[in-house]
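Just scan my protein:

——
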Amino acid sequence: MKKLLIAVPLIAIVGGAAAPFVIGSKVESAAKQYIELGNQQMEKALAANPQLSEAKFELDSYEKGYLNAKATGKVTFTANLNLNGAKTYTIPFTSDVKHGPYLGDAGFGASSIVTRPDLSGFDLPESINEDTIIMSTIIGFAGDMKNNAVIAPISFENDGANLDFAGAVINSVSPDAKNRSTFTGDAAIQQLKITPSNGEAFVLKPFTIDMEGKGEADLSSGTYSVSSSAIEGVIGDDEGSFSLQKMDAKGTYKDAEGTDVFSVGSAEVSFSDIEIKSENLPEAIKLPKLSFSSAVEQNSGTDFDIHAKYSATLDPSLMQMMRSPVDVQTAEIGIKLKGFSIEVMEQYQALIEQLVEAGDQGQAAAEAIQGKALGIAQLLVKNASSANLEIHAKSTEGDLDADVDVGFKPGLELSETELMGLMGAPDPSRLLAILVGRGDVSLAKGITDKAGVTPMIQMMAADFVTLDGETFKSDVKITDGKLLINGNPLPMMGGM
């Protein structure tokens, strides 16, 4: 019994002493897996970005000790950042690894990793060095991951101008280190001050950001959301300022079927309570809400529809600044592009890459128009692609509503020569002959009355508008090479 009682604490002591070495071996194995997983995720994330390519992580060395280890490696990527051709960048990094179970101030866990990227290979001020950005990661025993990135204060002068940035701290937590697309996080951005060589300083005050993401480890699908605190900036003492009380962004993403070049999904960004003040303005300009949204949808695994919408809630102060006789309260513009095939999307991506990679943008644009752009146009015609435009505005004087569809006739196939001929044709009816379309437009008479144009509309556009009660209405059609408004052909140069 005595031997057993002695053996139990001895086993515990030996096991505890061996724990850092055992955990260290697992951390080394996991680090190599994370590098490979990171490469897979980065390759997928950059597939749809024409300005970044061939990015990869490499682990050059991993020197493992009993309680710690040191890893060195690099991140290499090819980028087209200034439209003057592609350039390859390499960012070396050094990681100090501490093996658990006890990690010091961090408490208990499997490992602690502190990484310092070396930015000396970039054309940056001397004040930016290997201690400017420090990234810390703690991996728990359950495989969870806590990340922390600290950007140190930066201050430098360039041609008489000064930049002072007080730094930033970014935190995130992932329940599973192998799936970083599922996380919660926050960021604290400190004051940024830019002082030009002549003129008043611009100061962006501190603000915070909250982030959340839920998705698959291979980035095949997921959701994300971002929100901020109030963001404020000032110029000089009293020259001007701007503020917004909140920024919200959210979206979804999912792999498109039949291609790995892009994803489908949605995105929305909104800004609340924007206010702009200036000594050159009689009063502050306010914008209660401004939002942008977009979506890419896939139909039956073949065609794609692309949506974009811009909307705003307006304030009388903006109308006064624009000297508008009409008090517009809300405005919305929506654009839908329908029937874009996978081939069109891939060729468009290739066209953008060609333009970005070229050093001579003028020559590249000419070659692209002669090549890929015409090929894309052929596919759009063949697929009977179409576009929809919607405009809605509400004012105290009435509403404006427009809904117009225009598309290529089904069953058409045009050669590059025929397309070039249409583009250079002086007669618009030749282009209208390959299109079909419909639409309706309504405009409150109260708006035209307030703007003082009602008599002119009734006199000069009588054939193209109908006054229905207190609303002007127009019906639009494109048929047989003619643009008809309320059944009357619109006169156009070239003879319609």
